[in-house]
Amino acid sequence: MTLRSAFPMTPLASLSTAAANSVRTPTAYALALLALFSVAAPADSASAGCETVIENPENGSSEERFGHAVALDGDLAVFGASTQTIGGIQTGAAFVFERDGTTWSHVATLAASDGATLDRFGHSVAVDGDVIAVGVYHKDVGGIQDAGAAYVFRWNGSSWIEEAIVTAPTPTTNARLGSSVAIRGDAVAAGAPACCGQTPGSVVVFGYDGATWAFNALLRPSDANSDSTFGTEMAMDANEIIIGDPRSGPESGAAYIFAHEQGTWIEKA
Nearest Cα to 83, choosing from 136, 34, 131, 162? Predict the structure, then answer.
């Protein structure tokens, strides 16, 4: 069973209090992209909340797309800037901010160790505790154009380090893995809405065994069709993943829920 939208051509965008969830926006504005709200006064007060505007710490322009992707977990926020220039290369970046009281401060800039021009590092981001996943959907893998990848960073107690680059077990041209990412505990999921063949769209799940990240599962919808873009957006919480396909139906949109049961991901709805 699928959950279908009544609004044609409206991409799924999920946002919840789950630590693993992230939301990606298509805007290209560089400055003042996200307003973070928190309760600052009783509900009956004239002022029920406060707003904090976070800007690109590199004083970037609209070309750098700061805030194209955002993720939040407690006092940690991550912002993707998918065309940020790093080391003279327009490869993309992700900026980590931490909240201390009511103040958000830039604490780290994440970039790919092997970044190339227009990889779009930071097109999607997700955070759960001391692990951040960053989608790089235009990355070439082994000479395969736009196969895509996800980068996993971990806090080691003093800094964020690149722990792994995960790719599809069989990279495919224009699959665009990393168009969306989600993370929860020892699982990272990456969407590839343009993969593969006549029924496009898939989500690749990777698992962490305490030392390395490795391929765990390939998720596809039970009713995939030639218009599918399964994996365009997703969110993960505990042992479930909800995955958006805005062109399923055809093009009326749908969401699919997969649950991890006895070591296997099963489509539940």
Answer: 136
